[in-house]
Amino acid sequence: MVYSEISMLNSMQVIKRVRGFSLEEQKTLRGISATSEINISKIGACILLESFTEARTLWDALTEPELYDLKKRPYYPIFNLWMKDKPSMDWLSEDNSKRSAFSLLD
What we know:
Blueprint: H1 2-18, H2 23-35, H3 39-48, H4 52-60, H5 64-72, H6 98-101
């Protein structure tokens, strides 16, 4: 299930960069954002749907293990589509506290 969500989100990123989503594609993304067991998948679906406030809410609720996983693989191209209310992606900071990891970009 996780693999199919990741594959779907990767495919949807390509579509978003080329054209708008069909109603069926939007429905698929809403399903992922509502039912996925993986929070980063929910965040990705929200970014693709331009539901940035919801993405930020999910981001702020990430657990320490989820943050650790993100820091191990810090570059996700989908984050380039996050246009507002985006948390800092400065993974090289020596201060690894949750507060500093989520400060807003200027």
